[in-house]
Amino acid sequence: MTSARPATPTELDYFVEGMDCPSCVRRIEGALDRLPGAHGARTNLTRQSLTLTLDETRTSRSTLEATLRDLGHPAHALGGPGAAPPAPRAWHRAAQGRLVLTTGALLGAAVLLGQLLPTLAPWLYGAATLLGAAPLARKALAAARAGDPFSINTLVTLAAAGALLIGEQAEAAVVVFLFAVGELLEGVAVGRARSGIQTLAALTPKTALLLRGDRVLEVPADALKVGQTVQVQPGGRVPADGTILDGQSSLDDSPVTGESVPVGKGPGDTVYAGSINAGGVLRVRVDRAARDNTIARIIHLVEQAEASRAPVARFIDRFSRVYTPLVVLVAAATALIPPLLGAPLTEWMYKGVALLLIGCPCALVLSVPAAITSAVSAGARRGLLIKGGAALEALGSVRTAAFDKTGTLTAGHPQVTDVTGIGLDDSGVIRLAAAAEQGSSHPLGRALLAAHAALGTPLPAAQDARALPGQAALARVDGTDVAVGSPRYAREHADLSAAEARVAQLEDQGKTVVVLLVDGAVRGLVALRDEPRPDAPAAIEDLRALGVTPVMLTGDNARTGQAVARTLGLEVHAQLLPEDKLRLIRDLQRQGGVVMIGDGINDAPALAAADVGVAMGGGTDVALETAHVALLRPQVRATADLIRLSRATMRVIRQNVAFAVGLKLVFLITTLLGLTGLWPAVLSDTGATALVTANALRLLRFRGGEQD
């Protein structure tokens, strides 16, 4: 008895061999669109994966897999979305590698035996051609059925057949062999570009030391649950994102954030899965499950980035769709029209076949995604998470860098320096202010909570807590309405006149002042100071050297903003609400591209509106999700590195496109003039493909700093 097929659609996840470029993706998606019951196909070039929903009452899995196999992309079922792909096979064990070895052996035998038995050589050349062209013909037929009649497999198959027809068996064999070698080299090179991010998955240890009572148990790291406690031995890797409960050590975060110097950490500090414990024994509370840890998020963001195509990539794709049919038309006209006018048939058919090979678009189509993949991988390894090709392209043309102040240009660790009670003692002011800020992710809120913790008294409960971004934190505490806000907010909701002189005095010292309101009356002032990041002055100079104008946008008061701006040497816009920042970003965009760098919820609208939004490391989840780029390293100089990486990438893309198109134009002219034959024509694509990929791989060596 046969088992019934599932009555409901099933989500399937496959590893797809040989899916190396956008042309492959287009063929696969075109074929799946024609299968009844196949929906929602999503491909991922980084993982070489395909996810889709299949109604098996209309199309079976075996039919789906046979369709992919006919396209030249054997598919292997994975355990589910996000499952690790199978380990790559050695090149000589893969189907393409075996084809290269076999056709190469036949070609070599034909060359050697041709010296001894000239009559046998054409047959050996023909056998090598047929052996190499057979899989190409199958792929070409499948691609044509999928709606891609001008695939590279079609062009090479037609060229090989044409060469055989005019008696050029040796050149036909060389063409097929060189094409197979080019495909193999392309796969190897693209695999290297992928490896930069795939190696991150191997950073997390397979096992962890779980503390359960007095026992230490070795368990799979991916089985850890939030809230459990693990022990990290000296020299070991941290198995999960978490918080140190006990112990002091230096953590090497370089595999995750790109930070080259080990960081001293102790109780209360955050640690990342994959970081190396360079000091003492640590007890760590697990804060994120394996699928949600920082490394998993990095991999997910990079995969999203590589699926998000840059405008230049979309243009190249559209161009190639016109270019290839046009060259095929020129090739057909070259082969047919001159003989009709009395020219030698063999000579012009030979030229037409060569033009078919020149029409292959692989080098052109791969020139952009290879560079984007390499750049995104290089950035991720330095803690620069670029979420898409469009953001990477836009970074290179920005003219203004707009920075938030608190937590971006400053260290984000403000400390309470002065407390002024008005009808309350100092501890009472801190007590109520901290209560209203419970759960806050804003640096000022965290500073108030830290000041209260130092008092050692219980924190009162707060009800109806809410935040007005850029204005105040509100809550009901001990039966009273409490607000902790800026002086501007206090002036709008209470009488601040009696405290204005003290506010001005504190602000003139470069401090940030928050006002405590209780039932609508001013009851205290708290002053806080946040020092600029050590690398901020150098970062500002780096940006100016790149031709980018830095400006500071802050919700803080004008006096404090001016004090920080004078220290760093940049223009400042102060006392801004989120909507004011949004308006300023749009004003700045009239002068050119704008990159906005921030870390908090107040920045989310401006981050989204800027040409490129950059979320600083340690920022809120809202900012990280809204931004186009996330910085795992809390360093301002990373902004200049982003711009350098973008400009280097666009330079490589321009080189690749010029090389791919220029080489084809050269061989187009030399072929029509009869100066070159078939194998140089195939090298114009396979050789160019290998070279543009190798050029793109140079981006993996990007180190930032002074590199441009």
TrEMBL record:
Belongs to the cation transport ATPase (P-type) (TC 3.A.3) family. Type IB subfamily. It is found in: Cell membrane; Membrane. It comes from Deinococcus soli (ex Cha et al. 2016). Keywords: ATP-binding, Cell membrane, Membrane, Metal-binding, Nucleotide-binding, Translocase, Transmembrane, Transmembrane helix. The chain crosses the membrane at residues 99-117, 172-190, 322-341, 353-378, 657-679. Pfam families: E1-E2_ATPase, HMA, Hydrolase. NCBIfam families: ATPase-IB1_Cu, ATPase-IB2_Cd, ATPase-IB_hvy, ATPase_P-type. It is a multi-pass membrane protein. Signal peptide: none annotated. This is Cd2+/Zn2+-exporting ATPase.
